[in-house]
Design goal:
Blueprint: H1 2-20, H2 22-46, H3 48-83, H4 85-101, H5 106-117, H6 121-131, H7 137-146, H8 152-161, H9 169-189, H10 208-223, H11 227-261, H12 264-276, H13 284-295, H14 297-306, H15 312-325, H16 327-338, H17 345-369, H18 379-390, H19 394-424
Helix pairs in contact: 1-2, 2-3, 3-11, 3-19, 4-5, 4-10, 4-19, 5-6, 5-19, 6-7, 7-9, 7-17, 8-9, 9-15, 9-17, 11-16, 12-13, 13-14, 13-15, 14-15, 15-17
InterPro entries: Gate_dom (IPR011642)
Protein name: Sporulation integral membrane protein YlbJ
Pfam families: Gate (PF07670)
Length: 425
């Protein structure tokens, strides 16, 4: 117990220094970071097999799932932005999206790509738009608050089928996840207010397509690159970003494994029991899922799905909240992608915290409203699904992701054109 008291006192002291003596706090933060790195290296030497296995699992996850799933979106989005097509869509959709979120029409493209491909696509596109000065800082903060989401394939394939053994859970998680993202976007509309409000593209209905084409050509002219140069730069930028994402995945796989090896989560659970004096009875599965989910999304959801002595609705709610929070691993990826912009990372993390809380409320309400009855698939049916999913190769994932990108782009383009036509009436 003494160790827990010492840890709590250290944390309290750091918090006080953060507000009272920022210079001392920054120096201590650097020292603590160095100590953490030294301990990480020490545990790599102490547990080489376990750490190598964790790193290997991270690399396999990145190479087989993340790389083929995100590569078409990264390349395609870069090309469309450079060609000015995103600007064309933005001008047509802005009259619809501006009143809701107070953001430019380009946010519709960011949101569509985010909900299709998942983390960290929305952050990547928002950072690019801000670097190109297409959007203001306040607009970037508002966009990133609701355009950083998980993809449906992860929520249905990995979580609902792979962890809960029931695909019917997927729609509940998806609905709550995206509804809460939209809710957070509306909330941030009233938080980040431009000091000099930016009027959206106002033009009479007859000239809206002309305006959109003019803006697209202007964007392409400002970019100045030939098609070949644009495509080459897009591939290089996509590969560079994916390598960065892969590095973060491997790093946090190792960190999570090290925390398990040193019994960090057991210490925290004991500390929680000590602080509450056992007056609040929180099942071990809930605490373990939350602690793991704070760091890494996949393991957090897995532990939530396997938690004992917990109601199924609680398990699903926990998994939904973890998905919306996304984990420090995704936050680290986002921080790297936002490097070089003036987008506030603290504000982004607050939006993810709100996203997590609101999604938990939504999914619990929807489950209660529909009287959802959790019935896992029998083992034979479950393993049949798993065996089918294993047959998908790297090329299959790449082709599927490419098809998804093309379909979403075409749908978004059609919607924007229909909206433009409606303005002419």
């Amino acid at each position: 117990m003494t160790n827990f008291i010492v840890i709590l006192l250290i944390i309290l002291s750091l918090v006080l220094l953060r507000f009272k003596h920022k210079d001392i706090f920054n120096k201590l933060k650097s020292i603590v970071f160095i100590i953490i790195v030294v301990f990480m290296v020490f545990f790599i030497v102490l547990y080489p097999k376990e750490i190598i296995d964790a790193a290997h699992n991270g690399i396999i996850l990145w190479a087989n799932v993340v790389l083929p799933s995100l590569l078409p979106f990264f390349i395609g989005a870069e090309v469309l932005v450079g060609l000015g097509v995103v600007k064309f869509i933005g001008v047509l959709i802005e009259p619809l999206i501006r009143p809701i979120f107070n953001v430019p029409g380009e946010a519709s493209f960011v949101f569509a790509m985010s909900i299709t491909s998942g983390y960290p696509m929305g952050v990547k596109l928002t950072a690019n738009l801000r670097k190109n000065k297409t959007i203001s800082k306040s607009e970037a903060q508002r966009i990133i608050s609701f355009c950083s989401t998980s993809g449906p394939l992860f929520m249905i394939g990995s979580v609902a089928i792979g962890m809960f053994n029931n695909a019917s859970i997927g729609p509940y998680i998806i609905l709550a996840h995206y509804l809460s993202a939209i809710t957070v976007g509306i909330i941030f509309k009233f938080i980040y207010i431009d000091s000099t409000p930016k009027n959206f593209n106002k033009c009479d209905g007859k000239n809206i397509f002309k305006k959109a084409i003019e803006e697209m050509l202007k964007e392409k002219q400002n970019d100045g690159r030939t098609i070949g140069k644009l495509l080459g730069d897009s591939v290089k930028e996509a590969i560079s970003t994916l390598v960065l994402v892969g590095g973060m995945i491997v790093t946090f796989s190792v960190i999570t494994e090290e925390l398990y090896l040193i019994g960090f989560f057991n210490y925290i659970m004991s500390a929680i029991k000590f602080v509450t004096y056992n007056t609040i009875s929180i099942p071990k599965g809930i605490i373990e899922a939350m602690l793991t989910g704070i760091i890494e999304i996949t393991m957090g959801c897995k532990i939530a799905s396997e938690a004992l002595l917990i109601q199924p609705t609680t398990q699903i709610t926990l998994a939904t909240m973890i998905i919306s929070w996304s984990g420090l691993s995704i936050h680290a990826q986002s921080a790297s992608l936002l490097n070089g912009t003036d987008i506030n990372m603290n504000s982004y993390m607050i939006s993810k915290l709100l996203h997590s809380i609101i999604s938990g409320i939504y999914v619990l309400f929807i489950l209660k409203l529909t009287n959802f009855n959790y019935t896992p698939l029998d083992k034979e049916a479950f393993f049949h699904i798993i065996n089918r999913s294993v047959k998908y190769t790297w090329a299959d994932n790449l082709i599927f992701a490419s098809s998804m990108f093309i379909v979403i782009f075409i749908v978004l383009l059609i919607i924007s054109i229909l909206l433009g036509l409606s303005k002419r009436k």
